[in-house]
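Long-time lurker. I teach an intro course on protein structure, and each term I like to show students one example going from raw sequence to a predicted 3D structure in token notation. This year I'd like something fresh instead of my usual example. Would anyone be willing to generate the tokens for the chain below so I can use it in lecture? Attribution to the forum is fine with me.
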Amino acid sequence: MKDISERKRAEEKYRTLVSNVQEGVFISNPQGRFMDFNDALMRILGFEDRNELLHADIPALFVNPADRERLKKLLQDHGSVADFEYEIRRKDGEVRAMLESSIAIRDAAGNLTALQGFLLDITDRKRASRKSGGAIAS
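-- Reply from a regular --
Happy to contribute to a lecture. Here you go:
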């Protein structure tokens, strides 16, 4: 009973952390569908309905399909990516700059079963940098 209570407390801490971060947190399948995500990802991608985002085609969100292919290859070859930059098209059509860090999840046979990661919208940061001539304010 004690082990179950401790595990439930740990799971609740994890859920609270994931639901409160500003970054989009996601798990997706190799076929290009989200399996789970936090509210921040919905906001970043411009979705209000959770079920609608669960059925969204992830590759269709990429402005440049070659970026998706490069991301998939890096994950396949190296098992992870850090700060991979690309543009997505939100549900409302707005193009936003993203920074993704994610890992490939594999089964015991080495087959890719899922991707887990974080997505950060860096559009405003990039716009501010361009306005200030590329200098980053501290």
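Some talking points for your students: The domain at 23-128 is CATH 3.30.450.20 (Beta-Lactamase). The radius of gyration is 17 Å.
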